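Entry 14. Ran structure prediction on the chain below.
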Amino acid sequence: MTDLADRLRATGSEACADYARLYAEGSLGRALSGSSPERAVTPARVSSSCCATLYKTLNGTKGAYGYGDYAAYLPTEDGPGEWLPPVKPVLCRSGYHVCRTLEEVVIHLGRDLYEPEVRGDSDEGEDKAAWEQIRLLRRVPEWNEQTLRLFAVDCARLAVSRYGRADQRGLLNACLDVYVARAEFGDEWDAAADAAAYIDALLTAGAAYAAACAAARAAARAAYAAEGAARTEQAALLARYLAGEVGPFVEEEP
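Output, structure tokens:
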């Protein structure tokens, strides 16, 4: 394994080499889990091209939780955005936080999704990583207003079918039907709503939105209670949207 680390380092894959070294020392698990009391910022200098795809979630030009201003660093048609200024990475405090898996994207979901490149030091956590520097390579076009809404419906249907009260499921699913129509028809929503004979006039798009959000929050809570099983299922749904498939995918259950 030490030889592997040397070969990886020789090709410029410093981060992969660091992980190989930690594995050879028997300390990789502690470094990734943060269980070691001496856990420190992991020195890793890496381009996203040597590892799995990373993700950065934003809401417009702000971070998913409202921190940071990325307006001057967004990618354009001409190429990636500029590198953001270096900041010491400390999880939940400083640095630029990215998701390493779609399960982590589900936890930190935002309206906009980007693929970043990272470099410098990093601080690795259980559901995200903070980096010293990032730049945004491209916006993921498959994640847009329509797919976001339909993904919310899928998560909500899972929650309704598994955790909703039996006497409320019909109403909640009817609300979600309205929300699907709103997502699919966009600006033509009014005409579509008038033509949909099965939609009760009292079930407005606002009610559907509230139902979807409430059920999605229930699904998120259930994900933690089920030790990530629901989160994994949601990530699989998200992967289908990002692959360009057309949802929704979860059908109503009685």
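The beta strands are 56-59, 62-63, 96-98, 112-124, 129-139. Will compare against last week's run tomorrow.
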